[in-house]
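step: validate -> pass
step: tokenize input -> pass
step: predict -> running
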Amino acid sequence: MSILIIDDSLVSRTFISDLLNEVGYTDLTLCNSVEEAYQEIGFNEPDRTETDLDLILLDINLPGINGIDACREFSEHVVFCDVPIIIISGVDHLDGLESAFSAGATDYITKPPSHTELLARVRSALRLKTEMNRRKAREEDLLVLNERLAEMNRELERLSVTDSLTGLANRRSFNKFLSREWQREQRGKQPFSVIMIDIDHFKKYNDRYGHLDGDVCLQKVSWALQSALCRAGDLLARYGGEEFVAILPHTDVQGATELAAAFHARIQELALPHRDSPVSSIVTISVGIASVIPNQSLSPSQVVAMADEALYRAKQAGRNQSMIAATSTDSDQAPS
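step: predict -> pass
step: emit ->
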């Protein structure tokens, strides 16, 4: 255990250090002033972050920085604040003990201390320091554990809204985003579009190339689709299986149609071979588009259903194309 003794009396310092040495406390630092002690322990070093000091025996009546001021400075120091301080006081300075305790002292002894009293108070202070060290270690362990738990919770939250294969938003995240953005656009009476995307003849792709290659295909298609989105406010999600869906707030039918064309172009650029597709020698997609002005007579799920119906018609018409859903004022539109 490391003990610092600060006393301007050589006789007192020697007496205390000899008593401590007799019982095995040999890691002692003796100083005749607070200023010297600060120098010895690196008190004013700005980059100091820890200390091995376990106890301070401090004379209350010192030249320069006195014991009470030193107690306060030790107690306010981020590194030394947990080190117990035993005040050494002559009987004629006992009236200063209240100030010393208020400043951070934990105990006191009078000069000259008896062997029994000195050891009892030193051992008590060192037990206190040991317990403080244990408590601090437990608190640090708890902080680490809490941070790990927080990180795990963040990861669980991320996984709960993310498709594990493609990294896109999953169905749960899609539903929350759809409801929130629909209400926002309904208040602002702004256009709202949904695009449904399906990989053409994906079952045939899996049958031909295997499910592992099928997963790679899904990943590449999702990345290509995501790269076509230009606005942070849009969302692309994996809807299920080989289906994807894009939510486009504040986007009219023209903007949605242009994005659908960009989707087709990005998938074309991938040029993923699909030998068993009756549509093309490479992977292609079919797209359904629904674009409305949100109102009380419509629900977001109805708009998704409209896009899904348009997707169905695109597939029925031969795939590798886009179809726009008809609204109450529209007739069915030709493939785009």
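step: describe -> The chain has two domains: 2-140, 171-324.
step: cleanup -> pass
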